[in-house]
Amino acid sequence: MQYFIDIGTSQNRIPDYQEVKTCPVGSFLSARYKGCALEQAKGILKVYFKLKKKHKNKETKKPEIKKISMKLDERFFKLEKGNNFFDFWLKLRNPETQEWIEYPIKNYEYAKEYFENWELCSFIEILQKDGKWYAKLSFKKTVELKEK
Question: 6, 24, 68, 69: which has the fewest C-beta neighbours closer than 10 Å?
Answer without folding.
Answer: 24
